[in-house]
Design a protein that fits this description.
alpha/beta; Rossmann fold; 23 helices; Polysac_CapD-like; membrane; Polysaccharide biosynthesis protein; transmembrane; SAM-dependent_MTases_sf
Length: about 625
């Protein structure tokens, strides 16, 4: 029996049709017997053969028309029952029409109408019940296979019901559904197809009763906070957590348990969906020429994905990294949108190359995401950080002014606030330059280019960020390395960050620094600990967390505002505008000229000393440049 069920994962359609026809034949015979009170002699005297043949032909035609055989038998549900009824009604309609025509011409019926309707009810019942029987056989086999993993589904609604169907239908899945849980107390004690529903606070009891090993979240639009509560409780009881990625296939009766996957840390750190002013964004981007620098990076590539959906006339993507730029180009072209895509390999510090790109393609709006961002690496290579993050930005900004670009959106970082490292300071100086350039343009009534800065913290899953590193360490069996037990960071998903960059860029009129609401800071140790638990491993037994000490230039706590800055709200609650000091363009340029001389002279100490003068709040931390800090007071 086991071997047969393993092989018959899907019954061939011809077998389903054959079984259906046999059951319909049986139904007609039973209907004749019922009609004539089981007097076989009366049935024979009526000569039922022509009526049986008519019924079989009508049933076969109806089956082909409605494709009632198309459903996978072990997935049978309400929709299959309705399809059977539609098929039988169509068959009855055909028989009635033929009967009426025959009666009109001969004064006799091919088959008694009473037999037709009795057969309709019997066949509908048999066709549905045989499918349920096959489904239950598969479920019974799976339940008694001895390798099942007891599962609780959180969510006793439509999504939960679909999850139950998927788990029970997949013969090769090890899941065995033992209970539902739901926040709705009115559902407590009720059942869904024989599976009991419990209150959401009963997980401990279910673990004890059924040795539950996994909880599957099957609720659409569950809030992030509630999702975290559920996951934390499950992990506390040693229960792994999964969720349903999409219900689309299941709604089409295409049940695949692979739609259930392990929940990961990104699912718990994301936030509620942002409400964007899409109409305003559409007006600002549609039909325009948009340029994105750093387009092969995590932020730049996501900006490209989102911006192209607003259908600019042309989109110019710039980066030095050939292979990832090729990848994002291929992805964007596969969308089949009418936007003309221009792909440029270019160094943003190369004045001639950038000038030629702007001259040839005439961008109207620039999103500047190109930058060096890794703190310890830039601490070891400060000249490169200054060259790209400051002078690369200056080159782009100056070129934008010369070519009358309407808006320039610079992407900055929370590390620019009270910087403790070279990278953060270079980004702060870049902020200062574009602000001063915006003020200079405005004072001369040039008004050609508006400069807007956006500032936010770490993004989840970006290249070289903490989560991918932790995942890699987990795969290798550990240890997971954390620099300090108290270190915290702000986090935001890449799509969310880019949505806010686009809205802030469109919203800005020039000179603003927009700060994004990053939510609450997260302790990196807690993040690592939860990732270990989500992986099903035991902390300090399977995986250890090792503290390595703060790296060069690293902060314990990130900030979004410096000591002299305040914020004012905007129409988007996730975007705040910083009230910042103004800088004189001429003075900034003089300092940058000196900075460039120090780069050319390869004098790192003089270069960093000047950076500390330009940004007095820059105090090096765990760095060889601490000796250069300006004295207090």
């Amino acid at each position: 029996m086991v071997k047969v069920l393993n092989k018959l994962t899907v019954l061939p359609r011809w077998v389903v049709i054959l079984i259906d026809q046999f059951l319909i034949f049986t139904s007609v015979c039973l209907a004749f017997l019922l009609r004539f009170n089981f007097h076989i002699s009366e049935v024979i005297s009526y000569k039922p053969l022509s009526g049986i043949i008519l019924t079989m032909v009508a049933a076969f035609a109806s089956t082909l028309i409605t494709k009632s055989y198309a459903g996978i038998v072990r997935y049978t549900g309400i929709q299959d029952g309705l399809r059977i009824i539609r098929t039988e009604l169509l068959s009855v309609s055909m028989i009635v029409i033929v009967n009426l025509v025959y009666y009109y011409n001969t004064g006799k019926n091919v088959i008694p109408f009473s037999v037709v309707f009795i057969a309709f009810f019997i066949s509908s019942l048999l066709l549905y019940q045989y499918r349920i029987l096959v489904k239950n056989l598969f479920t019974l086999y799976k339940t008694n296979s001895g390798t099942s993993v007891p599962v609780v589904v959180f969510g006793a609604g439509v999504a939960g019901f679909l999850t139950k169907q998927a788990i029970e239908a997949d013969l090769h899945s090890s899941y065995k559904l033992v209970a539902f849980m739901d926040d709705d107390v009115q559902k407590n004690g009720k059942e869904i197809n024989g599976t009991k529903i419990y209150n959401s606070d009963k997980l401990n009891d279910l673990v004890k009763k059924h040795a539950v090993k996994r909880l599957v979240i099957a609720v659409k639009n569950l809030s992030i906070d509630r999702k975290n509560e559920i996951v934390d409780e499950a992990l506390a009881h040693g229960v792994r957590v999964s969720y349903v990625t999409s219900f689309d296939k299941w709604l089409r009766n295409d049940f695949d348990v692979k739609e259930i996957r392990d929940i990961n840390i990104e699912d718990l750190l994301g936030r509620e969906v942002i409400k964007l002013n899409n109409g305003t964004i559409q007006n600002a981007l549609q039909g325009k020429v948009i340029c994105i620098t750093g387009a092969a990076g995590s932020i730049g590539s996501e900006l490209a994905r989102q911006i192209i959906t607003f259908r600019p006339t042309t989109m110019i993507i710039i980066d030095q990294a050939e292979s990832p730029l090729f990848d994002i180009e291929r992805e964007l072209r596969s969308k089949g949108l009418p936007t003309k895509l221009i792909v440029c390999i270019a160094d943003i510090c190369n004045k001639e190359r950038i000038d030629r790109i702007f001259n040839d393609f005439k961008p109207e709006m620039v999103f500047h995401a190109a930058a060096y961002k890794h703190v310890p690496m830039m601490e070891s290579n400060p000249s490169e950080a200054v060259a790209v993050n400051i002078f690369g930005t200056k080159n782009l900004a100056d070129t934008a002014v010369r070519h009358k670009v309407k808006k320039f959106v610079m992407i900055s970082t929370d590390k620019a606030v009270n910087p403790t490292n070279v990278m953060g300071c270079t980004k702060r100086i870049a902020e200062i330059y574009v602000q001063s350039l915006n003020g200079y343009n405005s004072s001369l009534a040039l008004g050609n280019t508006s400069f807007v800065t956006t500032r936010f913290g770490n993004v989840l899953g970006s290249n070289g960020s903490v989560i991918p590193i932790f995942k890699e360490q987990l795969m290798k069996g550990g240890p997971i390395t954390v620099t300090h037990p108290e270190i915290t960071r702000f986090f935001m998903t890449i799509p969310e960050a880019c949505e806010l960059v686009i809205e802030a860029g469109v919203m800005g009129r020039g000179g603003e620094i927009f700060i994004f609401d990053m939510g609450k800071p997260i302790k990196i140790y807690d993040l690592a600990r939860k990732m270990v638990m989500l992986s099903g491993k035991e902390l300090n037994k399977d995986i250890e967390i090792v503290f390595t000490g703060l790296r060069d230039g690293e902060k314990l706590y990130e900030e979004l505002l410096n000591d002299q800055e305040n914020t004012i709200p905007t129409h988007n609650e996730k975007i705040l505008k910083a009230k910042v000091s103004e800088y004189q363009y001429d003075e900034v340029c003089r300092n940058l000229d000196l900075l460039e001389d120090f780069i050319n002279d390869k004098n790192e100490h003089k270069m960093v000393t000047l950076m500390k003068e330009i940004v007095p709040e820059y105090k090096s931390n765990y760095s060889r440049f601490e000796v250069l800090d300006l004295p207090q007071g």
